[in-house]
Predict the 3D structure of the following.
Amino acid sequence: MLNGTKRFITNAPEAGIFTVMARTDPAKKGADGISAFLVERDTPGLWVGPPDVKMGQRGAHTADVVFENCRVPAENLIGGREGQGFKTAMKVLDKGRIAIAATAVGVAERMLQDALRYACEREQFGKPIAEFQLVQAMLADSQAEIYAARCMVLDAARLRDAGENVNLQAACAKMFATEMCGRVADRAVQIHGGAGYMAEYGIERFYRDVRLFRIYEGTTQIQQLVIARNLIRSGKIYG
């Protein structure tokens, strides 16, 4: 019997089935008492709230998923036994963090390309603003950070493909790439000037959309904790 509310669930308005993490053993604290279930949308006691109105990423619909005395059959328990929910989630979390980091790199590349094109076309004082050294500095910083993030993503992905534990590398890549993407977005708006604040230009939407990268799949602060705990546990750095 499930009771509770899950917030900000991506694709909830369209989903026909949900993977639900729930505490099945209140006596066990932490991760041990959590189990994972598959719950179909038409299960009695499950209902989906209205779509959220968000600052950005409006193409990815989210909503609350509410459970009120929602009875789930035993065969819907993922893994066949209780208490495996957290472990199940951890199996996909590192992959998800690498994927978000890769997405951040791709979006940052697009934003830098747009900023570069605008800087080369927009003229001020009789010459393209790309010739101004402080504009060049923003372009250069963005390119260097994108390159660094791309290398991190590729390294983490190769290690995961090789079957290695990439908890540390995935957290590093996710933290750096998403923070980098936010900085590139800010510089791109700055290079566009007032035009960057207008919906007419794509950078305005990107600026809103990329803010979420630093929140989902674990906030930047969570990644910092994951990285630090890995270092302390192993007693050595990765490099």
